[in-house]
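Hello forum,

I keep getting stuck at the same step: I have a sequence, I want structure tokens, and every attempt I make locally crashes halfway through. Rather than fight my setup again tonight, could one of you with a working pipeline run this one for me? It's a single chain of 288 residues.
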Amino acid sequence: MDRYAIFVDAGYLLAAAGHLCFGTSRRRDLILHPEKATLSLRTRCDSHAKQAHLRTYWYDAAPDAVPTDDQLLIGGQQGVKLRLGRLTKHGQKGVDSRIVRDLIVLSRNEAVRTAYLMSGDEDVREGVVEAQEFGVSVILLGIEPLPGSANQAATLVREADDLITLSRKDCTRFITRSAGKVREARLNIPVNVGTDVRPAGFGEACGRAVRGARDAEAVAGILAHRPRIPPFIDVWLIKEAANRFGDPLSEKARHQVRAGFWKGLSTAASPDGDDAVDEASGDARRPH
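Reply #2:
Ran it on my machine without issues. Output:
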């Protein structure tokens, strides 16, 4: 049976799609919806290949090659294989070499007849050439560049057997912008709970308070981030919990507070949850 595989350079995907859709390539400004991303790519390739899908290879980088929560969500999907390089102060290392290696190994072993490669880097071109020498057709996947610009190496485009370009409409199916561009914000929402409440219950009360203080669209935007709490909310949440249960807050207590927050946010607003939101300038950090 003829099969195909998809090879995705996540760095290229996020940077090019973010630039096209929102004018930014910074990851902290973007939200990737993992299942929608892999499903969109597979649907497009299914239609083009008319072959069976072997798997999708997802290439990214992380400090010490330890996957982030988002990367674990990607790798946990059925039919998706996560490949990680290392993220250093000089950029990502080892990503392109992993793409080249997998292209060559799968082609040599006749595991695939067609390879769909999403990348813009000249460094993977040699892998394309070797795969083709084993009789594999290599189709390049790209993101539509802005007028007058390019986001894929011309040599890579010329080497590929064909090019499929995703439009802005295609990309907005799986990538959105961080809610409200409020990375530097601090909430001030009173949370009225008893003194005997434990971290999970306190987190739940915080979730209800946030739900009561924001409109339905804003709540839906927060829920779309799950399991990551938006940084400006997480800073407030953990600070409030630390004031109540002791600073520094233990890792176990942080986990309980965050789990409770999602539970409270997902339920109906409490009678005490209609306080106003007061946002002020402050430092926000990515939740652990």
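The two ends are 44 Å apart (CA to CA). If your local run keeps crashing, start a new thread with the error log.
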